[in-house]
Design brief:
The complex is a heterodimer of chains A (316) and B (285). In chain A, helix 4 crosses helix 8 (177-202), helix 8 (177-202) runs antiparallel to helix 11 and helix 8 (177-202) packs antiparallel against helix 12 (251-257). Chain A is built from 14 helices and no strands. Chain A has 316 residues and is an all-alpha fold. Chain A folds into 2 domains: 14-58, no CATH class; 84-315, MetI-like fold (Orthogonal Bundle), CATH 1.10.3720. Helix content of chain B is 72%, strand content 0%. Chain B contains 13 helices and no strands. The chains are: A mainly alpha (316), B mainly alpha (285). Chains A and B meet through helix 1, helix 2, helix 4, helix 5 and helix 6 of A and helix 1, helix 3, helix 4, helix 5 and helix 7 of B.
Chain lengths: 316, 285
């Protein structure tokens, strides 16, 4: 990232000479700041101040949705969190959601991409179809799946009954509810990851396959020894963004289960939401948000580190 | 896509089509179910086995939907919030992107790196203080409160800067020689030349804002200010699939159709930009 930036940092007026040079550079500096100003003001008001404020909140006993004044309590929120079983349960649920959802989503979307990459006629039409769930709103998708997963009149259990399986009470059974949300999220997100897989697939040089074919590799071996290794950067990207996204899941939980049954789908963001906006424990919820931030931050750094290493390997 | 010669080509193609069809069915059936259920009379929505094609068409759910909840108002709210956000975000972000790509000022690249860094901060971290700030500004339960946080985006700035960098510097210099100021160069030369990138950013902002649930959930307190997404969520928990109530599926599905329709229309007309944007995010990270 750093390399790319400094490479583009050619002084705008390096070629201009003479007495006007200084004038132009001053003028340009002024305009530059003016052009950045609106977005910078926005950044300060809606990102930097909230970020600092969030840290402030996490050290205070702020228990109202307004400015009523709150006593400083140091690390008490964080200490309380250590013993807050509901928070640990939420962390566990988020981890579970991630562990199930990310691999499943990646495999399913990779399968989609591999089929799409065969160059079959009508691929464009199918891509449009695969994308329908991606652009649909989470609320609409959730209410549709509530009916599809209904234990009595839902299509999913009906189809399962055709092959002799008695389907579970998907969203109503604590043992199945989280997996149900994972299934819906996989279905909804597949088209998105598919496009990224496709970009990766199309970046693989065709001669590699030809060379492999000459060496007698069949389709399965080509997939195993050419496609999979060449997709490593894409895989890593989808893995990290998938994990980050999974820890941020909220809408399907809010609409489909409200964290239930028996807190089995109570994920971190839903917990923060409830603490902050239903119990109005703004301070305590902010402390929880910082734990979430720490998790996401570490993952993002891992991604940046990998990308940087990769970019340097490719371009040096 | 280039077709490769391959001894397995024939059977693989047939298998490929079979997979495509199966996957397409999986992706589309839930939507078919949504539309068909919304057209069923209340009584026949729970038949077993489930009917994918309704035996009799009954559009009364759509009529009832609009009498039970102000979905027309929800639509107008969503439209106002989304259009304001898209226009504002494209405008403010493209200005910053132009400065980062083509103007020279002290600390430019450091500042840009800083912007990139802010992409790491998830919304969920700042939503609580953001709510308090919006409260302090008196914007809770106003359009402003819904719009303001989306008016600029580091991601949009990043994408647009990439696009501005591809425009030949000669154009800019020539315009300067002709006496054009930076504003003219930005608005008359750079913006028109980056149509696709602007469209990508705009479509992303549109989809993100239109289908957002979490922020409207916090800010839109009164029923009159709900967006469609929020309206459907409330509607569902009141009339629909709660474990303790007999759900009115046709009604909720009619709601889902109404909420999805505008997004689908926009998507069908702009899918090129949408797909492009996603592929870009994957390549550039």
């Amino acid at each position: 990232m750093q390399n790319k930036l400094s490479g583009s940092a050619v002084p705008a007026q390096a070629t201009r000479k003479g007495p006007w040079r200084k004038f132009w550079s001053l003028w340009n500096e002024k305009t530059g700041y003016l052009f950045v100003l609106p977005s910078f003001a926005h950044l300060i008001l809606f990102l930097l101040i909230p970020l600092g404020f969030s840290l402030y909140l996490s050290f205070h006993d702020w228990n109202s949705p307004s400015f009523a004044g709150a006593p400083f309590i140091g690390l008490e929120n964080y200490e309380f969190m250590m013993g807050d079983l509901r928070f640990w349960n939420a962390l566990k649920n988020s981890a579970l959601y991630t562990l199930m959802g990310v691999p499943l989503g990646m495999l399913f979307s990779l399968a989609l991409a591999l089929v799409m990459n065969m160059g079959l006629k009508g691929s464009y039409f199918f891509r449009t179809l695969f994308f329908l769930p991606v652009v649909s709103s989470w609320v609409a998708v959730s209410v549709i799946w509530i009916t599809l997963l209904d234990p009595n009149a839902g299509i999913v259990n009906y189809v399962l009954s055709l092959v002799g399986i008695t389907g579970p009470n998907w969203l109503g059974d604590p043992a199945w509810a989280m997996f149900s949300i994972v299934l819906v999220a996989t279905w909804k997100g597949a088209g998105f990851s598919m496009v990224i897989w496709l970009a990766g697939l199309q970046g693989i040089p065709k001669d590699l396959y030809e060379a492999a074919a000459i060496d007698g590799a069949g389709p399965w071996q080509q997939l195993r020894y050419v496609t999979v290794p060449m997709l490593a950067p894409t895989t890593f990207f989808l893995l990290i963004t998938g994990v980050i996204g999974s820890f941020q899941v909220f809408s399907p939980v809010y609409v489909m289960t409200k964290g239930g049954p028996l807190d089995s789908t109570d994920v971190v963001v839903f917990r923060i939401f409830q603490r902050a906006f239903e119990e109005f424990k703004m301070g305590y919820a902010s402390a929880q948000a910082w734990v979430l931030f720490a998790i996401i931050f570490v993952l993002t750094l891992a991604q940046l580190w990998y990308m940087r290493r990769n970019v340097e390997k490719t371009f040096s | 896509m280039v077709k490769r010669k391959n001894p397995y080509a024939g059977p693989i193609r047939i298998l490929g089509y079979a997979c495509l069809l199966a996957l397409a069915l999986m992706m589309v059936l839930p939507f078919v179910w949504m539309v068909s259920t919304s057209l069923k009379p209340y009584g026949s929505a729970f038949t077993y086995p489930p009917e994918l094609i309704p035996r009799e068409i009954d559009t009364s759910s759509y009529v009832r939907l609009f009498t039970l909840a102000p979905f027309g108002q929800y639509f107008i709210n969503t439209l106002i919030v989304t259009i304001a956000t898209v226009v504002g975000q494209v405008f403010i972000s493209s200005m910053a992107a132009y400065a980062f790509a083509r103007l020279h000022f002290m600390g430019r690249d450091t500042l840009f790196l800083f912007y990139l860094g802010t992409m790491m901060v998830p919304f969920q971290i700042t939503m609580i203080p953001l709510y308090l700030i919006v409260f302090r500004l008196g914007w809770v339960d106003t359009y402003w409160g819904l719009i303001a946080p989306g008016l600029s985006s580091a991601y949009a700035i990043f994408l647009l800067r990439q696009s501005f960098l591809t425009i030949p510097r000669d154009l800019q210099d020539a315009a300067r020689v002709d006496g054009a100021n930076e504003w003219t160069i930005y608005s008359r030369i750079f913006l028109p030349l980056t149509g696709p990138a602007l469209a990508t950013v705009g479509v992303f902002a549109f989809m993100g804002t239109w289908t957002d649930l979490l922020w409207p959930l916090l800010v839109a307190r009164s029923r009159e200010l709900r967006t469609m997404e929020l309206g459907l969520a409330y509607f569902n928990s009141q009339t629909g699939a709660s474990a303790f109530l007999q759900p009115n599926w046709p009604l909720v599905m009619a709601g889902a159709v109404v909420v999805m329709l505008p997004v689908l229309v926009v998507y069908l007309f702009t899918q090129r930009y949408f797909v492009q944007g996603i592929a870009l995010s994957g390549v550039k990270g």
